[in-house]
Amino acid sequence: FYIAPAIHGPCLDISYWTSCCWHCSETPVLPAKPIIAAKYPFQVDLEAGKRYAWCACGHSKKQPFCDGSHKTAAPDISPVRFKLDEPKSVWLCGCKHTKSPPYCDGTHKEEFIQKAELPNQP
């Protein structure tokens, strides 16, 4: 029995569906997964009140921030937009698999990240 979040059509209003999408009668689509941009986090100094867009897809050439690459490379993934109330030095996730986006939670230390080939590097 498989349960996955719906990410297509009118099902965007439905939290979960099972073996098929009963709402729009489409074949289930698995959520898009990001590519690993880096096997380490990025330490950045952020300004208070400034809007930031953290790349969630991994395709940006301006890591860890979004450059709009998701629009063609990963249209089902959107950047995480945020701003801080006070200036702060933070560690932003580079592997794109954090459970607390946009911040690093140490997931990059896991074997599946460390053994992965990075698509944007030789």
UniProtKB/TrEMBL annotation:
* Molecular function terms, GO-annotated: 2 iron, 2 sulfur cluster binding; metal ion binding
Q: Which UniProt keywords apply?
A: 2Fe-2S, Iron, Iron-sulfur, Metal-binding
Report the domain of life of the source organism. Answer: Eukaryota
- UniProt keyword Iron-sulfur present: yes
GO CC terms? mitochondrion
- Residue ranges annotated for the Iron-binding zinc finger CDGSH type domain, each copy included: 39-76, 77-114
The protein's name is Iron-binding zinc finger CDGSH type domain-containing protein
